[in-house]
Amino acid sequence: MAGIIRVNMNELKVTVEDLPADYNLLGGRGLTSRVVHDEVPPDCHPLGPYNKIVIAPGVVSGTNAPSSGRVSVGGKSPLTGGIKEANAGTPVAQKLGRLRIKAVIVEGKPAEKGSWLLKINKDGGELVPADSLEGKVTSEVNRALFNDYGEKAGVITIGPAGENRMSMAGICFNDTEGRASRYAGRGGLGAVMGSKGLKALVIDETDAPKVEIKDPDLFKTGAKKLNEGLRSHFATKPGGTLNSFGTAALINILNEAGGLPTRNFSEGVFEGARQISGETISDKVQQRGGSGMMGHSCHPGCVIRCSNVYPKADGSEHVSCIEYESDWAFGANCGIDNLDHIAELIRLCNEYGLDTIEAGVTMGVAMEAGLAEFGDGEAAIRLMQEIGNNSPLGRILGNGSYFTGTAYGLTRIPVVKRQGMPAYDPRAVKGIGVTYITSPMGADHTAGYTIAPEILSVGGQVDPLETSDKTELSRTFQQVTAFLDSTGYCLFIAFAILDYPDANEGMVETVNAVLGTEYTPDDVPKVGTEILKIERDFNRKAGITNESDRPPEFMKYEALPPHKHTFDISAGKLDSVWDYIE
Amino acid sequence: MAGIIRVNMNELKVTVEDLPADYNLLGGRGLTSRVVHDEVPPDCHPLGPYNKIVIAPGVVSGTNAPSSGRVSVGGKSPLTGGIKEANAGTPVAQKLGRLRIKAVIVEGKPAEKGSWLLKINKDGGELVPADSLEGKVTSEVNRALFNDYGEKAGVITIGPAGENRMSMAGICFNDTEGRASRYAGRGGLGAVMGSKGLKALVIDETDAPKVEIKDPDLFKTGAKKLNEGLRSHFATKPGGTLNSFGTAALINILNEAGGLPTRNFSEGVFEGARQISGETISDKVQQRGGSGMMGHSCHPGCVIRCSNVYPKADGSEHVSCIEYESDWAFGANCGIDNLDHIAELIRLCNEYGLDTIEAGVTMGVAMEAGLAEFGDGEAAIRLMQEIGNNSPLGRILGNGSYFTGTAYGLTRIPVVKRQGMPAYDPRAVKGIGVTYITSPMGADHTAGYTIAPEILSVGGQVDPLETSDKTELSRTFQQVTAFLDSTGYCLFIAFAILDYPDANEGMVETVNAVLGTEYTPDDVPKVGTEILKIERDFNRKAGITNESDRPPEFMKYEALPPHKHTFDISAGKLDSVWDYIE
Q: Which residues of chain B have pLDDT under 70?
């Protein structure tokens, strides 16, 4: 079997199809966006029968290329109303790759309410009723499925938030040890899965045929070059920044740059930054001992290992993991400087099946609306539990930051295309602002991570407050990222491939080795552009125009301390990001 | 004084300006849309400092032309995100006309929270603090202001819903006897007024200069012709349909046509229609006696007098008035056949300051979400009270039908551009569907009332289920309506002017007489087109494109009983409504 598993939820029927010939060169985001573009009517209701969920591992996922265990999920987003791709690092990506499944496409909607489980193995897929999983939090789903299908199974699930069709619901994948903790979080794709009555997928890779590699020698050469790059770069090497302190190493860095959004994007410096920094997380893990660990990996074969397991005071496991984004979202953004409260908020997100970024931005907005005091971690936990309770307040919060701000008549809502902004204030780091605003995905730092040169001096060095050339910078990063999101590689390989031409070449060689293509590094932005084109095309047909590529109004008139900058890149400049393709 | 009263809420300053020369030919909607188009940035946040509220009486409002007491309110809608005009019939329209105030423009936003009252008289305007009115329901505001400023004052106010910036909040005007009951309801303009801290306006017309009529003889001739038309037509004459049974005369008619949306637009016939019909309202008014009355007028000088005062069982006043739309919205649309429950729901809307159409459509959606059973009037009253309580559930409901449906992850949400659909199912009456979908205002029957020929055999006769020619029909009605909405005449004069060329000529003559223009009846659609053009232009710049001119998806695949029709007019046909101007 190779190709596509198509799951028709109208008829509760699963079929296996060959990948169409012209899709052969795609994986991950390139494939999800292509299928969504070609098969989903752009004007459909995101929770209706015509939307689809597409799950696709990257091109090299399942090989032994380093840090390549990413899987993409695509569909029309109930949050933004546009096309959406969100990806996660997980052994599931590798299992799908080794099963030679290029995509799982879930379509239609059952006539009767109910919950189903999709079983996937080397022979195809089968839908079975899953009433016993209904309403279960993600850790319970994982436990039940590992119990029934063995510890080596791969599990994809939604939590109660997805079942309740809340638009901040993500899709959860297991990590290396089986935790329900790795998320294709953004854009509410969990709600789309929930609307189809699909509670979970379980993947059995017994006798999987493995990834077909057309040129094994080239693959070996390429993987080696990339591996060496990753092992040399200060950010990604063993014992390097990410490995030692996790992504939350960025807390102190952004705070010093005055770009750490604090108390719902009202300041760029958080007085409690040190207490929630990656360094402090690392200290606590060491002090508390027990199950805590730094340098945890989300999938086998990762060189970078930026994940962590955060322990309670008694050493027992609290949550995996405290990422920079989650840490910031519930920390600085809510004025909370207590890591245990932050850990609990993240744990609740993992259990309910929520995107931590959207949840944290929503919490900041809820605090702005007066539902809790900034800094009150216990009140934040109570608010988060409302989502689990499915109360009216939970219904508001569970639909995200734009929805919550609108419910309370606020104007200070830090979103683009209704998606909450990640952990970099666009007024202090202008290039990432251009990415937030112009990405087809809504506010998304991973869509074009200009933080590398703006803050980290990786891939060059540019002034974060400068506005000139930021459109070009973001454009290039978005192009390259669209390619990377299709490969199955973790975005963090970008550090090495930006700084080391050899590593970049190696990355391209592994892709060529699998696909039989002859891409050069120069082709990367071109291939990325093709993906961005179809995403923009879908959005335009969904009614998302240049007028949606705009910052929230308050950032145009409210200057951010300490730099006292507004977001001062004009509409015309923003539109120019896409001039070259339209 | 003549022209514009400009109220700057940033500085709490009121100035009087001359009307710009090129605005001289406009009144009502023509003027509000022009000011909004020219002065409001289309991409601004509707509740932010850059939106404006524009209040403008019609061209002939304040004269003795029959049924001419309409006033328009314009701004960017927090509900649709586009341009909005909503109008009401009220003595206030006439007072503004006689004061020669063409428009009140409220702009900016105070630095500090608070409530203000704008006092208007022949010398201009003055802002005074109004903390004592804060949080008051509309009847309390009216009582307080009549007490302070005399019973002859005109009052414009918002209820608590507007203060709480809920996007189904309307703006309330007093009726002939001073009731807080006449609404510029649609599109959430009450929330915009609330966002500016403006709780109410009080208008004193002492020593008003009266409307300047350039050609008094022509005016007399025209008014007489129109008056005769209104007094002859079966719909509008004294003792005619509207006068005898009110607008709710339409309940039985639409029910028979299979186009009365029932239980959240799932059927076109309501088994309880008779119990909530205009005929039954009239019977109850007669039986119960006391304060009840049919043939009530919303403003002095109305020939049609289609309003009513509905009494409780003991004869004491319950509410004015039970309009067709409100009656349907809480009645058939919620499966409720008890007029006393409907009356109470309307009374709560009037008190909280809500658009009854949006509130009723929201209630139907809430019932679909399982918040109450269809048909349970008492549960509906309790839900409505949540809006007054400003609870989380009230926050959901108070933001309208689209918001409520989204909160609960529904797909059956009967809206266009997020505005709830009025009382005609577009699958059974296709022309009004084209109006709902293509109007710049969102779903709005008054934007192009094709019901006249489709259901009432007025202005011709066309098959409501037929799709061909419905785009042209809606286009023409929308053009003429944009003109009528600018005159200050009630839309119901359309019955007479459609059927009697003399009445139509008379209407145009009164406008010419006031303005000094030489319009012919043939110019009416041309002038209307100019208004529609600037409204479409604003919307496009606000990001509302042809892709927003679409029916809710479920109406494309769910056939409506009893006719079993879907909404089957293609996107291309819908877009063709505007081909001629773009």
A: 1-2
CB contact under 8 A, B47 and A409: yes
Helices (H), B150-277: 160-163, 189-195, 216-232, 241-245, 250-256
- Contact residues, chain A, for B160 at CB < 8 Å: none
Min distance A266 CA to chain B CA atoms (Å): 16
Are A451 and A432 within 8 A, CB to CB?
A: yes
Cβ atoms of A257 and A270 within 8 Å: the answer is no
Q: State the number of CA atoms in the 13 A half-sphere of B371 facing the CB.
A: 28
Is residue B180 within 8 Å of residue B88, measured between CB atoms?
A: no
Best mutation target among B40, B163, B371, B399 (most A Cβ atoms within 10 Å) is B399
Separation between Cα atoms, residue A316 and residue A319, nearest integer Å:
10
Chain centroid to Cα A485, Å, comes to 10
C-alpha separations of A55 from A29, A101, A486, B20 in Å:
9, 10, 12, 59
Contact A43 B553 (CB under 8 A): yes
Q: Which residues on chain A are in Cβ contact (under 8 Å) with B48?
A: 411, 553-554
- pLDDT tens digit sequence for A62-83: 999 999 999 999 999 999 999 9
Residues A273-316: tens digit of each pLDDT: 999 999 999 999 999 999 999 999 999 999 999 999 999 999 99
Its pTM stands at: 0.98
**CB burial of residue B572 (10 Å; 0-12, 13-18, 19+):** exposed
Is there a contact between A45 and B550 if contact means CB atoms under 8 Å apart? no
Chain B, nearest residue to A538 by Cα: B547
Q: Which residues of A touch B (CB under 8 A)?
A: 42-45, 47-50, 78, 164-167, 191, 194-195, 391-393, 395-396, 399, 403, 406-411, 540-545, 547-548, 550, 552-554, 557, 571
Nearest CA in chain A to B109: A411
DSSP helix/strand/coil, B365: helix
Instruction: Report helix angle A356-368 to A377-389, nearest 10.
Output: 110
From chain B, the residues in CB contact with A161 under 8 A are: none
pLDDT in tens, A481-491: 999 999 999 99
A1 — pLDDT class (breaks 50, 70, 90): very low
- Looking at the predicted complex, does its ipTM rise above 0.95? yes
Q: Is B106 exposed, middle or buried (0-12, 13-18, 19+ CB in 10 A)?
A: buried
Q: Note the pLDDT of residue B26.
A: 83
What domains are defined for chain A?
3-203 (3.60.9.10), 213-241+426-582 (1.10.599.10), 246-424 (1.10.569.10)
Looking at residues A436-448, what average pLDDT do you find? 98
Which of chain B's residues have a Cβ under 8 Å away from the Cβ of A49?
557
Distance CA A406, CA B395 (A): 9
Q: Are B83 and B28 in contact (CB under 8 A)?
A: no
Say whether pLDDT at A353 is over 70. yes
Three-state DSSP class for residue B452: helix
**Contact status, residue B561 vs residue B568, Cβ threshold 8 Å:** no
Q: How far apart are CA A170 and CA A434, in angstroms?
A: 25
pLDDT at A2: 60
